[in-house]
Amino acid sequence: MSDPTQPTPAPGEPQAPAFAAAEDSEPVYPHFESAAWAQAPSTQIDYTQMDAAALADAITAPPAPTPTRAAYATGQNGDESYSVPPPAVTPITDPQDRFWGSASHFVGVLGPIPVLIIWLTLRRRGRFVNQEGKEALNFQLSAWILICALIIVGGITMPILIGYALVPLAIVVQIAEFVFAIIGGSKSSGGKPYRYPLTYRFIK
User: Is the distance from CB of 122 to CB of 129 less than 8 angstroms?
Assistant: First the structure.
């Protein structure tokens, strides 16, 4: 269909081209207004400028290899196995090691949970905190298991009067647990290991 806004040429006059040619003889596309886009180099291969041998090589050339993905911790990549070492753990300094080693004992006055948190967080970063954290955790677990057993058995045996001796004994064990936690923290603050008496070592 013809554009009604354009004048109709007289009979015998040449028809105007749909697109006007630019000065450098390259076609102009009026629906793309960006000159930068029109001048951008094309990534397509111009097969019309190749001879027969080059054209055959371009057609039969293998595709570019796909970049390999980053390897995971373990697995298989085709026929080759691969592995990535775990991230290195930054060790703490000796003063920090001694501080957190003694802190593992001191926080035992609050129960075994704070001791467990310190030990799990720093056991791979310091030798002393790993050693003292395990010792403090073993003592806290032993003490709390004994306290809970005394309270349960004492409550059951209360009607036969045995419970009246077991429940106060549980209070004595709890006070001893508090005192030994302070002693352990004080002794280990100088970098010397401390060993609790009457402790079953669940964690070797």
Answer: yes
Q: Residues 60-75: pLDDT tens digits?
A: 666 666 555 544 455 5
Spell out the residues 6+ positions from residue 37 whose beta carbon is closer than 8 angstroms to its own: none
Residue 118 confidence class, pLDDT cut points 50, 70, 90: very high
At 27 the three-state DSSP class reads strand
> Nearest 5 degrees, angle CA 201-CA 91-CA 134?
10
pLDDT band at 19 (very low <50, low <70, confident <90, very high): very low
Q: Which of 198, 200, 145 is nearest to 170 (CA)?
A: 145
Torsion of CA 124, 129, 130, 131, to 10 degrees: 150
